[in-house]
Amino acid sequence: MNTGDAMDAVGLTNVRKVYGKRDNEVVALDGVTTQFRRGTFTAIMGPSGSGKSTLMQCAAGLDQPTSGSVLLEGHEISELDETELTKLRRDRIGFVFQSFNLLPVLTVRQNVTLPLRLAGRPPSRSRVSTVLDQVGLAQRSNHRPSELSGGQQQRVAIARALISEPAVLFADEPTGALDTRTAQDILSLLRHSAQTAHQTIVMVTHDPVAASYADRVLFLADGRLAGALHAPTAESVAERMTHLGAFADDRALPLPRLEKTRGGQHR
Ligand SMILES: Nc1ncnc2c1ncn2[C@@H]1O[C@H](COP(=O)(O)OP(=O)(O)OP(=O)(O)O)[C@@H](O)[C@H]1O
């Protein structure tokens, strides 16, 4: 059995994912091998349709690869039954998706605490307050989702993912609906979580500045790895994306969405 390296929170070996059959076959991932070390923050980038979401779904155990191995927190996911997979995801993994999946009848606080209450591990009031404060929603804890902006709803989803302090956090465009300042705060929070709480963060993004908060950027093209950048800057990421054709059609490089302070450091 492949037990992998204990330093890796997630390890993919030769992962292939094919959707559809015969004439309708789409090869979404075509032999991807990579590792996500514990306590690291990785951004996944690539042109539309390059397989980013599929990679994340497979790495998170939400979807099974057609072939190849995914080792998640020491477990080969193809060897787990649905109950074991559900337990692994519930206890060790956090998710932030583009659709926030908030329950409209529950308040912010109730939405954030629901997964842990369902798991029989209700968080303390102070833990809830800390997380709501971290995402800038302390004043909104009794509001319902319909009373919040899109960006605020996204922050509820982020708080819900962070509250259980998951070993691995998968996030699909977590700052997509946020204004510049809030996006900076959330990205700094994610980086801080990786550095201090040794959480492993895997984030899909289209934004080179968001990616520059990560320790490493993995590039995908046509379902295959197309290189990596360590200690990325927004400029180096944007340049690489342009070469991958992600910013094609004669547009200028997208202006970094987030500002940086002097010396290239993020606030
Ligand atoms: N459920 C599915 N059934 C059939 N094809 C799929 C399915 N999910 C994804 N695909 C195809 O697999 C390929 C990779 O899709 P994926 O969503 O992983 O790309 P992506 O890089 O996340 O794209 P985007 O940046 O546009 O969100 C695409 O060609 C897509 O059409």
Automatic annotation (TrEMBL):
GO molecular function: ATP binding; ATP hydrolysis activity; transmembrane transporter activity
Segments forming domain ABC transporter: 10-247
Annotated keywords: ATP-binding, Nucleotide-binding, Transport
Cellular component annotations (GO), alphabetically ordered: membrane protein complex; plasma membrane
A Pfam family: ABC_tran
Matches recorded under SMART domains: AAA (SM00382)
InterPro entries attached to this UniProt entry: AAA+_ATPase (IPR003593), ABC_transporter-like_ATP-bd (IPR003439), ABC_transporter-like_CS (IPR017871), ABC_transpr_LolD-like (IPR015854), MacB-like_ATP-bd (IPR017911), P-loop_NTPase (IPR027417)
Domain of life: Bacteria
Listed PROSITE patterns: ABC_TRANSPORTER_1 (PS00211), ABC_TRANSPORTER_2 (PS50893)
Xref: PANTHER family: ABC TRANSPORTER RELATED, IMPORT ATP-BINDING PROTEIN
Record-given protein name: ABC transporter related protein
